[in-house]
Amino acid sequence: MLRALLLTFSVVAIAHAELCKPDAQNAFKVRISIKTALGDNAYAWDSNEEYLFKAMVAFAMRRYSSKSTTQISNVLLCNVTDRVSFWFVVTDSSKNVTTVPGSEVEAAIRMNRNRINSAFLLSDKTLQFLKITSTLSPPVEPSTPAWLIVFGVVLCLIVAGIVFLVVSGIQKHKKKNKESTERENLEEKVEVTVTLENGIPCEVLDLKSGRINGVFAADDERFTSL
């Protein structure tokens, strides 16, 4: 009985070794850069981390297909290196000697990529599935609609234009009043003023209209009249 069990385990181990090997059918290579991602807070990759990886792959497969019965034991790892790279396959839970098609595994990983990354505190760049393309995160939509932003900008420009026109009009009106006041003051200074010359009050000659001295006017009438 014991010999039969050992033989069965040996056959299964050999079968698993044939299923999980570099470049095997439906096998995927994984490369992990923990030190690059976490620096001084990097953790060691050990059997516990391998168990978590198997659990996350099994979770992805079960979540991808509601009818899937994938277990942790169906996820096989091989060729694990110290620089944390390895190959893995997912075996068929019903037969356990064949692998799940690579297209299904790829679809499951892509659908749950963020959950797998979060489990290891990594990103698509530091947790690489070499044959599985990275999924693009959905574009971030702004909380404010674009049309509302454009409307706000146009409204601000209109308000700024109105304020500019009002302020410039007020400044022009003040400037016009100031020029008018200065012109009136200048005209007042040019008006005729009364001064004293030799104790006799006389008027300053108005350069515009001119003035006639009354004394000389009387003499002219006296000597020139006929």
From TrEMBL:
Entry-linked InterPro entries:
Collectrin, Collectrin_dom
Q: Which PANTHER family match?
A: COLLECTRIN
Q: Which organism is it from?
A: Sakesphorus luctuosus
Stored Pfam families: Collectrin
Any idea which UniProt keywords this protein has?
Cell membrane, Glycoprotein, Membrane, Phosphoprotein, Signal, Transmembrane, Transmembrane helix
Listed under GO biological process in this entry are: positive regulation of amino acid transport
Taxonomic lineage per UniProt? Eukaryota, Metazoa, Chordata, Craniata, Vertebrata
Question: What do the Gene Ontology cellular component annotations say?
Answer: extracellular exosome; plasma membrane
User: Does the keyword field hold NAD?
Assistant: no
Q: Tell me what gene encodes this.
A: Tmem27
| Region forming the signal peptide | 1-17
The subcellular localization recorded is: Cell membrane
Task: Look up the domain of life of the source.
Answer: Eukaryota
Protein's membrane topology: Single-pass type I membrane protein
- This chain belongs to the protein called TMM27 protein
Give TM segment ranges: 146-170
